[in-house]
Specification:
This protein has 63 residues and is mostly helical. The chain contains one helix and no strands. Helices cover 25% and strands 0% of the residues. It is elongated and about 65 Å long.
Amino acid sequence: MSTPDIRVEKGHAEPEEVAAITAILLARAAARPSEAPAHRGRPKAGWRRLEREGGFRAPHSWH
């Protein structure tokens, strides 16, 4: 027996309801965005490599 692709976790969905949600999900997956979102690159990484940091930071410093 094969495992279904969509499973109802709570309640009882009729076959028509499962078919409707499947059609909606497939339509959204097939839809192409009209315009590609603009990618804004970050000028600097949001994380720091600890091996490039100084060995000591004063306890009262903010950085």
